[in-house]
Amino acid sequence: MRLDKFLKVSRIIKRRSVAKEVADQGRIKINGKESKASADVKVGDTLEIRFGQKVLTAKVEKLVETTKKDEAAGMYTILGEERISE
User: Which of 79, 73, 84 is nearest to 47 (CA)?
Assistant: First the structure.
């Protein structure tokens, strides 16, 4: 599944266009490697997403094409959230 679609379906980022923009700015890493919106996401991958002063680390648990809002959180596990200072 494409990275931007995974972020939208899992509701980590609400809109696919925003997910694509964030990825193309180099603010998302898959397994430690900077990734574009078209990168493939697989079960077991670790995502690092930088939102301003915060870095969210999540592990991909399952991939589904569509999901209900209450089931979306089951697509990933949050491994950590840290604030960064620049």
Answer: 79
Give residue for tokens 């266009």: 17
Measure the CA angle with vertex 72, ends 3 and 12; round to 5°.
45
Question: Which residue is it, tokens 């923009």?
Answer: 21
Alpha-carbon dihedral angle through residues 11, 14, 20, 24, given to the nearest 10 degrees:
-90
Contact 44, 15 (CB under 8 A): no
Distance between CA atoms of residues 42 and 40, nearest Å: 7
> Are 3 and 16 in contact, with CB atoms under 8 Å apart?
no
What confidence tens digit (pLDDT) does each residue in 61-81 have?
999 998 898 888 899 999 999
Indicate the pTM of the whole model: 0.88
**Residue holding tokens 């991909």?**
60
